[in-house]
């Protein structure tokens, strides 16, 4: 019988598999996707948010625990478990050497991301390179890996893990198990159920795009909640970003994100602004815009800038709609011309331009207009003008399984002795709402490593009474 079974193939699952194997356990990893699409949402990541008290290789200055905690507290509005959040924060300070030992390389941030040079360590080659490095290391260490093997259910004996059953009907036993198979962001029906119907008679989830993998259907999350596992989080909350409306339904990744929001205005289908575009630095606020757009008519909006903003943000993969006048721009994007022009002119008149500095919380703001723009407010008055259509792009959902510092799945408050969870399936313990750049990888790395270590210990305690023949069959 295999010692540790890991279900999933993203960052958290791989960290768990590697830690369990380093602890001496035999490990089998089941990935739902084909090999070419392995890695879950982690293949689309870029960086890890890291606590550090002094400059460290690719990280400048310092980012102490208390500042990290306050950043997280602000974006979550207090919907976070402080004990677990601080565990993640502290773990982020000492994981990079371990990551390097497994082939991950880091680089200084690109020019379009210098504002996170102090807080985030960027992966050389991005998330795809990271997961490939982990898979190579896992194979070298003897972790068994099976692709195209989605798991449909978990067999339990009370709160004890016994086996999983794959969608193909195969039963696989193990002494312990780590569940790390993601949220339910790719499950359209579950998203519809979570978001419901709005006052306009729309089903907002029908217009959501999925930034990451199509394989995160939430099958095991739903199964475990139905089986009595303790859950946490609001199913309508998640990491949701405003992305280009022309992006593909799945796997658009980071290149479809629209990063010019704070440099202009955002208008909805009725050509009206609806939120402060300059509330805070973009890495702390980019993840609120998907939800904001989801609440607008038709779940569509446009990020509008002028020539002055060009070159100040990471350009998206699709070019913006361009025009030499505001009237022409409105016509080109299908908005009412008079309303659009009035909205922009009212905004321009409200701008109080001081010393513009997009790397600081500057003094360029609006007065006498709602919603206000708190920083980086400059008139949109220099042709050509550009508009980028945006829709909600969901990255991962926050409904998950409740845990403590051991990463054990809990049933009525009682911790399972041999079933653990990591990654998106438990991120809601730390992220009740909101997001700040790189924290998802921090959570997955911290709890993946904890879960793998705990699963190896549990396996060592679990002396199977099955015959060698039965154990061999279960492992294969």
Automatic annotation (TrEMBL):
This is Fumarate reductase flavoprotein subunit. InterPro entries: CobZ (IPR012831), FAD-dep_OxRdtase_2_FAD-bd (IPR003953), FAD-oxidoreductase_2 (IPR050315), FAD/NAD-bd_sf (IPR036188), Succ_DH/fumarate_Rdtase_cat_sf (IPR027477). The keyword Hydrolase does not apply. Residues 3-430 form the FAD-dependent oxidoreductase 2 FAD-binding domain. SUPFAM superfamilies: FAD/NAD(P)-binding domain, Succinate dehydrogenase/fumarate reductase flavoprotein, catalytic domain. It comes from the Bacteria. Its EC number is 1.3.5.4. Pfam families: FAD_binding_2. Keywords: FAD, Flavoprotein, Oxidoreductase.
């Amino acid at each position: 019988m295999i010692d540790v079974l890991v279900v999933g193939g993203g960052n958290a699952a791989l960290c768990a598999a590697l830690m369990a194997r380093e602890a001496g356990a035999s490990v089998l990893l089941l990935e739902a996707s084909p090999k070419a699409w392995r890695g879950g949402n982690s293949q689309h990541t870029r960086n890890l948010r890291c606590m550090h008290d002094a400059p460290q290789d690719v990280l400048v200055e310092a980012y102490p625990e208390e500042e990290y905690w306050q950043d997280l507290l602000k974006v979550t509005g207090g919907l976070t478990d402080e004990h677990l959040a601080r565990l993640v924060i502290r773990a982020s300070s000492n994981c990079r050497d371990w990551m390097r030992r497994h082939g991950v390389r880091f680089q200084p941030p690109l020019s379009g991301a210098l504002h996170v040079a102090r807080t985030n360590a960027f992966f050389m080659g991005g998330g795809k390179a990271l997961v490939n490095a982990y898979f190579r290391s896992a194979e070298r260490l003897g972790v068994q890996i099976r692709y195209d093997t989605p798991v449909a259910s978990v067999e339990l004996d009370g709160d004890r893990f016994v086996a999983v059953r794959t969608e193909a009907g195969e039963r696989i036993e193990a002494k312990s198990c780590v569940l790390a198979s993601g949220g339910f962001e790719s499950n359209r029906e579950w998203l519809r159920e979570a978001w419901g119907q709005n006052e306009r008679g729309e089903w907002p989830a029908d217009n959501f795009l999925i930034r990451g993998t199509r394989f995160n259907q939430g099958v095991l999350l739903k199964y475990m909640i139905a089986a009595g596992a303790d859950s946490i989080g609001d199913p309508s909350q998640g990491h949701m970003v405003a992305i280009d409306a022309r992006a593909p339904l799945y796997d658009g990744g980071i290149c479809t994100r629209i990063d010019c929001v704070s440099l202009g205005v955002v208008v909805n289908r009725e050509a009206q602004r609806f939120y402060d575009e300059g509330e805070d630095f973009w890495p702390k606020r980019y993840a609120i815009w998907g939800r904001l757009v989801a609440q607008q008519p038709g779940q569509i909006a446009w990020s509008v800038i002028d020539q002055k903003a060009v070159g100040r943000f990471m350009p998206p993969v699709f070019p913006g709609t361009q025009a030499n006048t505001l009237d022409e721009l409105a016509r080109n994007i299908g908005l009412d011309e008079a309303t659009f022009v009035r909205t922009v002119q009212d905004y321009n008149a409200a701008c109080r331009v001081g010393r513009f500095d997009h790397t600081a919380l500057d003094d360029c703001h609006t007065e006498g207009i709602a919603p206000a723009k708190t920083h980086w407010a400059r008139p949109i008055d220099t042709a050509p003008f550009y508009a980028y259509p945006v829709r909600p792009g969901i990255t991962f959902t926050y409904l998950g399984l409740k845990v403590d510092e051991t990463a054990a799945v809990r049933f009525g408050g009682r911790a399972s002795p041999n079933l653990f969870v990591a990654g998106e399936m438990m991120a809601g313990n730390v992220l009740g709402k909101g997001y700040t750049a790189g924290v998802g990888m921090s959570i997955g790395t911290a709890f993946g490593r904890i879960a793998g270590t705990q699963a190896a210990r549990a396996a060592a305690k679990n002396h199977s009474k099955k015959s060698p023949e039965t154990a061999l069959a279960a492992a294969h």
